[in-house]
Amino acid sequence: MPEQQIDTSAADEQCKQQEACAEPEAYETQDDAPSSSYVHRNGTREYMQAEVMPYVQQALEALAVKIQQERLKLAAGVDREEGKYLPHGWRPFCPHRWMAEYLIAHKPQAADAAVEGS
Questions:
Q1: 44-71: pLDDT as tens digits
Q2: 71 near 27, Cβ under 8 Å?
Q3: Domain of 15?
């Protein structure tokens, strides 16, 4: 039985277009980019690396310490009433909530000034 030839030229062309859309430097301005893709403004990555990531990294390190403390506290039975039951209304540690509260409580002063100025 002879092998069938499959025409992949249309699929290859579509892949090339998608790869071109994924590269923001392929466009001179944001107006040149197709409407389905998003191009970040110049300097966004540098701003994130310089201003945001150190703040988030500090919060993640504090979260890791807090999770370890909570695990040890739960394993030791500190929260249990008379060593048997967890008290009424007890809730497990919620890392998402803790992280959000930490970020709000420890936000840099420059962020406060930017919010007040706008």
A1: 888 899 989 999 999 999 999 999 998 9
A2: no
A3: 1-39
